[in-house]
Amino acid sequence: MLNRRHLRVKVLQALYAYQQTEQKDVKQHEKALLQNIDQVHEMYIWMLSLIDETIQFAANDAAERANKHLPTAEDLNPNLKILENRFITSLHVNKDYISALKKYKVSWDFEPELSKSLFTVLKNSDEYKAYLQKTDDTLTTDKDIIKFIFKKVILKATLAEQVFEDKFISWPIDKEVLQALIAKTFKNFSFDNPHENKLAEVTGNWPEDRDFIINLFEQAIRHDAEYQELIGNKTQNWEPERIAMMDTLIMKMAITEFVNFASVPVKVTINEYLEIAKEFSTPKSNSFVNGILDKILFELKEQNKIRKTGRGLIE
Q1: Where are the alpha helices (DSSP H) in the chain?
Q2: Chain segment 251-271, per-residue pLDDT in tens
Q3: 136 belongs to a structural domain
């Protein structure tokens, strides 16, 4: 699921887009930010659907085999137990899943060869052959083959990777989150009664997380000039054009949390943004951002502008 670091990255992307455009409509950019997060959920639903689509192709494959010119006895009596897989049958009656399929208009008609190619890989695997031979299946063993389909068939397929990259611009960043959501779904689907099984939540507490990202985005924009001056005073020996925009935005977000988020410990803020700088900015950004934030933090403490409550201790 999306943790706070992922959410900070989403805000960073939204702030970058805001700075790059002439349209400074904060509400429109907030809407785009929320849509970006909703796309993670959409990606998750599409992936669950692709797992299902791959399994359902077993019926198509059986029909093709039966219509061969000289079908074998095995062709005429295929083992279709995968269609009764407990995980999949539970998914089929999940109201949230059904609703999401309609919301996102999920259909694989645009890529008809994908499920066929995935099922072909599955059908030829030793894991699938062993699954078909099992006679003592449980929900756990049923989930095991689904995990195999997801991890070893779909995620290894070049065509599947290409489809998700084309459909979701944030796929390279959110792929890790998607895997966590699918893993959470496997954990959640632990009841024999399918109606007790729940889809994974995109965040741990969406109402609270939504407030966090909107507040972070708005406060960073509201105090942009003020925080730019703080940064400028500590980077006078640097030519402005030599400072990466991403570094500046990362520092502004950190300052925003220092000053405006009483419940977020300073150390947490620093650690989070240094990790983000490592991944999303230049190779030297981590040490640069760390040095400037240390100086700004010292000044803000001297001015008594950092006031943390609860667990949010300065030190």
Answers
A1: 4-20, 26-66, 73-76, 86-92, 95-103, 112-123, 126-133, 139-148, 158-167, 171-188, 206-222, 224-234, 245-260, 266-280, 285-302
A2: 999 999 999 999 999 999 999
A3: yes
